[in-house]
Amino acid sequence: MDAINIRLSRSTQPASNFALEVDLTLPNQGVTAIFGRSGSGKTTLLRCLAGLEKNHQGQIAFNETIWQSEAGDFLPVHKRPIGYVFQEASLFPHLSARDNLAFAMKRASQENSIIAHQDVIDLLNIASLLEQFPHQLSGGERQRIAIARALLIQPKLLLMDEPLSALDEGLKKDILPYLEAVCSTMSIPILYVSHALDEVIRLAQYTVIMDQGRIVDQGETQYLLGKLSTSRYTYQNTRFMITGQVTEQNEQWGLSTLSFGQHSLMISRTHEVIGDTVKLQIQARDVSIALSANEDSSIINRLAVYIDDIATNNTDPNTVLVRMMADHTPILASITAYSAQKLNLVIGQQVIAQIKSVAVLR
């Protein structure tokens, strides 16, 4: 069965100050996020997979083709069918954007051409940038050219190493829709390294969490982020995700109804249309809990759920995290320990999860 298999152990060089201890089998489709704080080993793992790091023992196989083995076999970088997008765009400064792309196309295997040049141009909206040189482009524009270059190599695997980390928040918001388009359109697997939880939620179907060179947890993104144990490794405000389909729209109030399982949420309407699949991210601190379904509240999203788990928040002993299940979708709430005691919350209890529409993030 096609998959990405990685088994790496300690560096063979005693002077090395970092060691990976990983054993992974990753899906050979969609987007897999490699997530963790700075220094957790994410980039080292990606560089090993690309063949840029030779210091680690172990085996790497892609679709049953051995790239590195315990016996010492090592496929050089230029023979691995990968595209690599770095934190910095790393374009050739003396070449125009068009010529940067042409350089990639010369490297591409024409026999395995699966990504059309014009499709990439259109997808990333870079036609107007092609005659410009890197110094004439903004950071976001340079990164879009870098992504196009990586795709035009005709890779069987795309590696992206924190491609938005060098951009300010404005440019990051500008380029994220293009990244979403790439991730949803391309039929090749993508490994996406990030320490930004919002990027992981928007882009990845599967997530691997790393810490100190080891795998802390892994699984489908929505369920992984719904685990209370996972929240201790996110290093950010705890949040979870809901994926659903737009089933209704209210023109008068500018709202869309997102349905998932037997439940639904009303959210502020943007560009979505009926039938669209939408991913939402919600911070646990924006969820409250009620014991009854009284309608005398300004909060219109009131979900009948049951409590599945309760844990003390490691970063604040006066706060507890409560996981509730809406069918198969986990809902997290961060509330004070006092409130949990006052409501006498226990595992298995039926409660109402309240979510403000204005608190929902895209």
How is this structure best described in words?
This protein is of the alpha+beta class and 362 residues long. It folds into two domains: 4-225, Rossmann fold, CATH 3.40.50.300; 239-359, RNA polymerase II/Efflux pump adaptor protein, barrel-sandwich hybrid domain (OB fold (Dihydrolipoamide Acetyltransferase, E2P)). The protein has helices at residues 42-50, 97-107, 117-124, 139-152, 169-185, 197-203, 221-225, 228-231, 337-343, and strands at 4-11, 22-26, 31-35, 56-62, 65-68, 82-85, 157-161, 190-194, 206-211, 214-220, 239-250, 255-260, 263-268, 277-283, 287-290, 301-312, 319-326, 329-336, 350-355. A six-stranded mixed sheet has the order 6-7-8-3-9-10, sandwiched between helices. The chain starts with a strand and ends in a 7-residue tail after the last strand. Its EC number is 3.6.3.25. This is Sulfate/thiosulfate import ATP-binding protein CysA. InterPro entries: AAA+_ATPase, ABC_transporter-like_ATP-bd, ABC_transporter-like_CS, Mo/tungstate-bd_C_term_dom, ModC_ABC_ATP-bd, Molybdenum_import_ModC, Mop_domain, P-loop_NTPase. Keywords: ATP-binding, Cell inner membrane, Cell membrane, Hydrolase, Membrane, Molybdenum, Nucleotide-binding, Translocase, Transport.
Order of helices and strands: EEEHEEEHHHEHEHEEHHEEEEEEEEHE
What is the C-alpha radius of gyration, as a whole number of Å? Answer: 23 Å
Main sheet: which strands, in order across?
6-7-8-3-9-10
CATH architecture of the largest domain: 3-Layer(aba) Sandwich
